[in-house]
Amino acid sequence: MGSIAENIRSVRERIARAAERAGRRPEDILLVGASKMNDAAACREAVAAGIDALGENRVQEMTEKLAQHAYDGAPVHFIGHLQRNKVRQVVGNVSLIHSAGSLELLEEIDRQAKKRGLVQDVLLEVNIGREASKSGFDPDALFDAAARAREFEAVRVLGLMAIPPAAEEPHGNFRYFEKVCRLSVDIAENLYDNGFEYLSMGMSDDFEDAIAAGANMVRVGSAIFGHRPYQTTTGGFT
Ligand SMILES: *Cc1c(COP(=O)(O)O)cnc(C)c1O
């Protein structure tokens, strides 16, 4: 692996090629660096190299890195599983929450945003593989949830996010990405006046397939920052 800046450059090139193959403009695809378990210096390097945003998974880690000015110069997003009792620490501190995956969570985001006198931008997370281990709305419940979500005054829904099941073969997630894209188009047309801006899907191993299926926001960690230490022991992220 090269430096963080070199890795970002090569990921951007791959994004550009995937976008062109799909007949889309490279600059329309936003690159979110998934910076969990990487320190403030690594985040600053990514910001200096022109990353579009950094995404964090754990509230405590993010809070510490915010205090260290790790993200100065780039927006920070919350992309991990969010617990209701931690919403207060996230609302207003991030420009986008990717992981709004239940009505209870949306309600709490709305409540905390009102308290702070702001409107929080969110994506609705869809559990596209219907996995018990993952959070997010069931695909069949998503349309109704998206309709309800419009009623929260201090929450603005800007699109969808999904993490498909771990792929068993190359391109194994393409069909899930396509499903999410269809849900997104349907909801945007029927409920949001075509006003969905973002479709957040695709990680280091599959962001090109996600772009081919319609993603315009990819969350890339290890291809930028290198392998996280715990990946070798647990084989996944939390
Ligand atoms: C860690 C993480 C990513 C990035 O994963 P990589 O495989 O390292 O690119 C993307 N999205 C979420 C929600 C993550 O937790």
What is the secondary structure topology, with strand pairs?
Layout: H1 4-21, E1 30-34, H2 40-48, E2 53-56, H3 59-67, E3 76-78, H4 87-90, E4 96-100, H5 103-116, E5 120-126, H6 139-149, E6 155-162, H7 174-191, E7 198-200, H8 207-213, E8 217-220, H9 222-225, H10 231-234
Parallel strand pairs: 1-2, 1-8, 2-3, 3-4, 4-5, 5-6, 6-7
Helix pairs in contact: 1-8, 6-7, 7-8
The protein binds pyridoxal-5'-phosphate.
Residues 34, 36, 57, 79-80, 163, 203-205, 219-223, 237 line the site of pyridoxal-5'-phosphate.
Describe, in plain words, how this protein is organized in 3D:
- The chain has 238 residues and is an alpha/beta fold.
- Helix content is 41%, strand content 16%.
- The chain is built from 10 helices and 8 strands.
- It has helices at residues 4-21, 40-48, 59-67, 87-90, 103-116, 139-149, 174-191, 207-213, 222-225, 231-234, and strands spanning 30-34, 53-56, 76-78, 96-100, 120-126, 155-162, 198-200, 217-220.
- An 8-stranded parallel sheet has the order 7-6-5-4-3-2-1-8.
- Strand 5 (120-126), helix 6 and strand 6 (155-162) form a beta-alpha-beta unit.
- Helix 1 runs parallel beside helix 8 (207-213), helix 6 (139-149) runs parallel beside helix 7 and helix 7 (174-191) packs across helix 8 (207-213).
- The chain is globular and about 45 Å long.
- Pyridoxal-5'-phosphate is lined by residues 34, 36, 57, 79-80, 163, 203-205, 219-223, 237.
